[in-house]
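#structure-requests
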Amino acid sequence: MEQANFNAGKYDGITSSLGNFIILSATNPDIQSVIVIDESIGADVVVAQSKIKTVADLKGKSWVQI
């Protein structure tokens, strides 16, 4: 909802992941960003179906960021 309101000009700014910023910039090429990088040590995770056993098994699969 925030992205739709931003696109409609209802917000001057929003927080967003890098991936969502890239999507937003496709329809708002003049937007500007302040990027905050969080370096995680061990907190990153991929949640997958049980049939995914290796990184190679992810090839060609679709994904959702949560």
